[in-house]
Amino acid sequence: MNQAPELSTLTFTAPDQRRFDHPLEPLTEREVQQSVELLRSMADWTPNTRIISITLKEPSKSAVYAWPSAPVSERLASAVIMHNARNRAATVTLDLEADRVVSVQLAPEGAQPTLSVDEQIECEQAVLASEEFRQALERHYGPVDPALVMVDIWSAGHYGDDDQDSGKRLTRPLCFLRSDPTDNGYARPIEGIRPIVDLNSMKVVRVEDYGKWPLPPESANYSANRVGKLRDDIKPLAITQSDGPSFRLEGHQISWQKWKFVIGFNAREGLTIHHVRYVDSGQERSILYRASLTEMVVPYGDPRPTQARKNAFDVGEYGMGVCANGLQLGCDCLGDITYLDANLCDSRGRALTIPNAICIHEEDYGILWKHTDRRLPDHPEVRRSRRLVVSSISTVENYEYGFYWYFYQDGNIEFQIKLTGILSLGATHPDARPPHGAMVAPRVYAPNHQHFFNMRLDFDIDGQRNTIHQVDVVADPVDEQNPFGNAFRARATVLRSEKQACANLNPATARTWRIINPSRKNRLGEPVGYKFIPGDNAVPFASPEAWWRKRARFVDHHVWVTPFHESENFAAGDFPNQSLADHGLSTWVEADRPIEDTDTVLWYTFGQTHIPRPEDYPVMPAAYIGFLLKPSGFFECNPGVDVPPSAAAKHASNGTCGHC
Known about the structure:
660 residues; mainly beta; Beta-galactosidase, Chain A, domain 5; nine-stranded antiparallel beta sheet; 8 helices; 33 strands; 9% helix; globular; disordered C terminus
């Protein structure tokens, strides 16, 4: 394999020199650039070949669990590339230790990889340069300054009627017209015009015209310098830690109180969490091997022609990692903050570093536990709860998604998504009231829509052989054993196969799931475990025959369970962009593989139904959705009982409080 002269400066450090680096740490900037050079050395590489992503190809679980006693000698990368001229994608495995290409696996013919960050920019430029698009603008609105047109790239999807588009790498952008260069362009949607762009040629192939709508009359700015008078009754809020934070960060390995884990990041999934352990009585106990957002879809519920094809697979079609923000102290993160950068590359192989892509900090979370013995009123026992926060925020055109992992002193792990940003809007005719959305301003409406997320949770509760129970709370019948009719109990169903495990939430039975290790017992003789507790959720309102549902079958159930397989990572399959069908969870579970007492993966689909309101405009207050992992027989007692009491504090006007 040919090697660029400068590659010697990029070669990864020898195994014995990095034996203390965790094998699941993400690729460094130097490793990404080494991977780029290896890709460019391939025989079929051309100037039109794009790099969609380069990420760590994770070593086997056995190798990770043997580390650090047995250093991991392999360091592999996995790259997805797109040959534009041939309209063919491929996955390339690279050996960074041996500095060679290991394998090239062509994607199925017609499969389209994620949109690259460059394509998103170039697509907008292609639309603005299109004479056909300019003529359509002039027909609708008269002479228009193209510099004021805002183009949001939207994935093309598939709808069964696209013979003219079959096999092409396309997008269907949404367009808006600013009133001035810094105006909120989303306030003035260009409702009747949809350009269709071929990303391989980077040309507008046609402009679809759905009739004329007048531009909405009002601006709707939200920036601080354009909203008018700001509140003046807010005093500064300072969060300080004079001795610094309680966590220790070495590379991407973090230790906080009794928690230890690795923070990952990649172009497609964004923030990932790895090898989560809890130090219990001096012993590291495994809980969660890997956790990530594998896919999400945002289906819109408006059948109007300009809106009907809006359903974005934000992970598989855009890449949550490449859309990540560089976070700002005091704005996105408040307190004593530590940041990690994300080391990616653009589609031409140029280094793409997102500074401060990951935020790490501690925050107070109210009371952890408290009890006051009335016989000892002067000696209440109370402990403040503190949690470790690892977060990242991504902007996918109009929407923002904040991803937050919380680790608590009582053994809880929580995941939360904060949804904010700007509604995807449409224009109306005067006095019209579209039935499938809500008016948010004069001649501006927001279509009804849903957000569905899918998380992959690879549990290793005290080892890899786990079993999952579905737990339902049921009432006992009124009989001689239950004469007052007050008895109820938790009934656990052992999940033994993939199809049996497919399930939805059931508020009527307070349904939860418990992941146990049947071979590891606690002091009460019960298997150790963690409980999966779902939060708010939704079901899809679109017909099962809707094309987006055929491509996103992961929304059919809230919970899926599969045996671990290293190639099964994304709920809608490896290439959901313009897919004709689902190639993920729904196809894997057809094998109905056994899942009892084995290495299992729980997949959780959770959604939010958004019926918009005027208060969501011009920018949305954050909404919250997520789930909780709670120890259930994992510890001998409350693991937070040894948290020390807080120091006494002084109040500005009332003096010193008592011992707490």
